[in-house]
Amino acid sequence: MTDLSHIRNFSIVAHIDHGKSTLADRLIQSTGTVQDRDMKEQLLDAMDIERERGITIKANTVRIDYVADDGRKYVLNLIDTPGHVDFAYEVSRSMRAVEGSLLVVDSTQGVEAQTLANVYQAIDADHEIVPVLNKIDLPAADCERVAEQIEDVIGIDASGAIQVSAKTGIGIHETLEAIVKLLPPPQGERDAPLKAMLVDSWYDAYLGVIVLVRIIDGVLKKGDRIRMMHNDSIHHVDRIGVFRPPMQTVDELGPGEIGFLTASIKQVRDTRVGDTITHEKKGADKALPGFKPSQPVVFCGLFPVDNAEFEDLRDAIEKLALNDASFSFEMETSAALGFGFRCGFLGLLHLEVIRDRIEREYDIDLITTAPSVIYNVHMRDGEMIELHNPADMPDLTHVDHIEEPRIKATILVPDEFLGDVLKLCQDRRGIQMDLTYAGSRAMVVYDLPLNEVVFDFYDRLKSVTKGYASFDYQMIGYRQDHLVKMQILVNDEPVDALSTMVHRDRAETRGRAMVEKLKDLIPRHMFKIPIQAAIGGRIIARETLAALRKDVTAKCYGGDATRKKKLLEKQKAGKKKMRQFGKVDIPQEAFINALKMDG
Amino acid sequence: MTEPSQGGFGLYLHWPFCQAKCPYCDFNSHVVARIDQEQWETAYLAELDRAAAETPDRILDTVFFGGGTPSLMSASLVQAIMDRIRRNWRLSNSLEVTLEANPTSVEAGRFQGYRQAGVNRVSMGIQALNNDDLRRLGRLHSVEEARRAFDFARETFPQVSFDLIYARQDQSLAAWEEELSSALNMAADHLSLYQLTIEEGTAFGERMARGGLKGLPDEDTAAAMFEMTQAMTADAGLPAYEISNHARPGAESRHNMIYWKGGEYVGVGPGAHGRIVSDGQRYATETHLAPGAWLQAVERQGHGESLRTALTKADQGEELLLMGLRISDGVSVSQVQDLLGRPLPYSAIKQLSDDGYLVHDGDRLRVTGAGRLVLNGVLRELLAG
């Protein structure tokens, strides 16, 4: 256990590719935490998908021992946080577990959107922030300009920004000294009842659930009996330790320290991020503020393209759920798609990550149905139904009214893109709540229907602002609106998986956009295919996919027979990636892409 | 198809060299500085002997010199090959011997020699009747030169065919109509009219991938061109007897019919494919593709074959269907089904017939004019599963 004054806890805030991982690697390496021979690039990035998308889904942490220029030995704890709005709550918990942040900006690029979203989280958490200008070894580096930009855009003093090349090692020593000198030590009472914040948790096949904790007050020891304050469940601690980055067991964790515990916990869902852990006896009576259990807000159906893979899909989903408490699922059957699962997610990125992992790690081709939020359907008899799936929409004659979830969206955007952002929010049925300026940046607050946001709002926002907007949201409750179920008919047959709830006033526009998209997404068949959008029995939009006009091989002689046969085989394999609705083959990606709006 | 005689028996001989590589061509053709015609003669004759040993007792119906540009072969080489063929096989009384020729004056100079060697049909790669487009297609001849070579061929050979490529860059329907009518006025008895297909691995393919190949007609225009081609050739007395081939009745390419009717053929020369029956088993054969590799294999290993695959009955059934539906005769349903070992999907046949793509007439199954345009789609439906 380390004296509080010798502990520094910090996170690194950076845009993708600005060198966060390399800097972390270099800090770990230069302090001898990892021997050079064990050094692998990007120690903290775990999954392929995280690396590809430039996001971190799980918090990672490492404990670094550092003997500073003042001759004293310090313990530095680095937490690497998730970096996407879907995981805003998880980020906020990670940020609360540390006292300061290194703000890493690429000196050849400058401040970018992801930097902003996370730096505001750090400011919210009252962090001391140390600006670090990275990649100064490159000819295009312009430290002065980027430092100015940090001051203008973020509004923090960047005059003392440290100039670093994580690649060559320049400035690494200065960074370590700045962490020690500029960041405040944590505070906490060793003798107070135990209060540990649950920062993150994940499942390990050998150890069970591994819980990442920050000790606020008190001392945690191996053998302790602990209580999760949100549900009063009791566990017996069988191991505590720290990451360097490999696990290293320790005897105890005291105030200000960050480490892990295992307690034979079987499921990640028993360990909720933000929860307070205390002792079973003589525990704390008040939990740490800010805990909220994560609730899925976006739902969609996941069906195997090949029905025979249903059991494999079940297996994959159950395994993924072991490690992800925020992801929910239940079995669903669809007339057209057969057996699958209705799944709930924190947001669209979360949905895509889970879907990609199922497809990649378990090799199952999926059909993803239209994402939906939870609607409150009030029936004439006074009953209220929570509608997760538009396909389950009750008969309209029994429905009195429908309420939809709304969010408060906060968007920070450079002045020049403000007009586009306001238009986007208006187009998505937003109600402006606030508009203020901070330097050349505007902060707009909108009350928006969640169903207008879940699908592609964030992508659109990034696209209209060239990536310079940051976005955060919170749920603010339900409100009644004129919502209807829109069905899509392909070749005169309704395709459940494409049903969506839309606002009545937008139905025609959405319907038209969807049928036009589908016309491009469905390959031409031997016959013409009407594609229609309908509300109730009324057609509101219609396109016709013309029959295949020309598809014939011009030359086919003796040497071509073999090649031609291979082509047919390939086409047959391609057909397996489609689902048949009546006589029509619909490619799996059509289900999601049909919903993407261009405006 | 275990009966060797069914569908006929032909010999394909591949000459892999050209004077220049055309940007659309994905055939096995090479441009080299010097060709040792004697070395090639020795290799071809060795392969002809090997092929003959494998196909005794056949009556040879057709010979086809393809390429490449076989009109770059010396007349004496063609003579030597034909002499060996006559020695090795019994010949049909109406043996058809086709040679593909470029329509230049240089090559026309060899026509007499080819005729003496026994060639009785030439197929000329004219490709366009428009000098700008000939240049774009990378052809070395002009329209004038092509017409002269054609006239000379007409005098020399009993049967003459020529090829045109349409649906070219910036070609309008009206421009093709005009070009096709002047082609029909040239009084050939056989025309091969190919829609330009952009193949991977060609110069056009690369330009297309880079977004550089502009002005190609869209699907609807290309379809309209195809339909117009069908109508105009039929009116002129050269109806389509295959997707891209048109002839006066009786002037069809008998060699190519062997491919489409599931006959037997030996392939000689680099990259030549064959389908031969041995001990009741039908095989697909391939030879080494690169000219040098093929020569070396023939000289050192005694044969140029690189691959021999025993075709299952089902393979043969699929092949028969996908080749046979190309011709106006169509296929015998019972023959296809016997080979496939399963019935063709009745519902698909019914639907495609109702939609006007197929005609099911007794045991014959054939595609209609509309069906020809979407033959790949028809095949997908018939072979789905």
Automatic annotation (TrEMBL), chain A:
Catalytic activity: GTP + H2O = GDP + phosphate + H(+)
Membrane topology of the entry: Peripheral membrane protein
GO cellular component, one term: plasma membrane
PANTHER family: TRANSLATION FACTOR GUF1 HOMOLOG, CHLOROPLASTIC, TRANSLATION FACTOR GUF1-RELATED
Protein's cellular compartments: Cell membrane
One example of a Gene Ontology biological process annotation: positive regulation of translation
Entry keyword set: Cell membrane, Elongation factor, GTP-binding, Hydrolase, Membrane, Nucleotide-binding, Protein biosynthesis
Known function: Required for accurate and efficient protein synthesis under certain stress conditions. May act as a fidelity factor of the translation reaction, by catalyzing a one-codon backward translocation of tRNAs on improperly translocated ribosomes. Back-translocation proceeds from a post-translocation (POST) complex to a pre-translocation (PRE) complex, thus giving elongation factor G a second chance to translocate the tRNAs correctly. Binds to ribosomes in a GTP-dependent manner.
Protein name: Elongation factor 4
One GO molecular-function entry: guanosine tetraphosphate binding
Enzyme Commission numbers on file: 3.6.5.n1
Annotated positions binding GTP: 17-22, 134-137
Keyword Nucleotidyltransferase appears in the UniProt entry: no
Family label: Belongs to the GTP-binding elongation factor family. LepA subfamily.
CDD domains attached to this UniProt entry: EF4_II (cd03699), EF4_III (cd16260), LepA (cd01890), lepA_C (cd03709)
Automatic annotation (TrEMBL), chain B:
Chain's role: Probably acts as a heme chaperone, transferring heme to an unknown acceptor. Binds one molecule of heme per monomer, possibly covalently. Binds 1 [4Fe-4S] cluster. The cluster is coordinated with 3 cysteines and an exchangeable S-adenosyl-L-methionine.
Keyword vocabulary terms for this entry: 4Fe-4S, Chaperone, Cytoplasm, Heme, Iron, Iron-sulfur, Metal-binding, S-adenosyl-L-methionine
UniProt xrefs under InterPro entries: Coproporphyrinogen-III_oxidase, Elp3/MiaA/NifB-like_rSAM, HemN_C, HemW-like, rSAM, rSAM_sf
Similarity comment: family membership: Belongs to the anaerobic coproporphyrinogen-III oxidase family. HemW subfamily.
The protein, known as: Heme chaperone HemW
GO molecular function: 4 iron, 4 sulfur cluster binding; coproporphyrinogen oxidase activity; metal ion binding
Cell location: Cytoplasm
Lineage: Bacteria, Pseudomonadati, Pseudomonadota, Alphaproteobacteria, Rhodobacterales
One GO CC term on file: cytoplasm
A Gene Ontology BP annotation from the UniProt entry: porphyrin-containing compound biosynthetic process
SUPFAM superfamilies xref list: Radical SAM enzymes (SSF102114)
Keyword GTP-binding (UniProt): no
Coiled coil: none
Pfam family, one: Radical_SAM
Source taxon at top rank: Bacteria
The species this protein was found in: Brevirhabdus pacifica
Predominant cellular place of this UniProt entry's protein: cytoplasm
Acyltransferase in keyword set: no
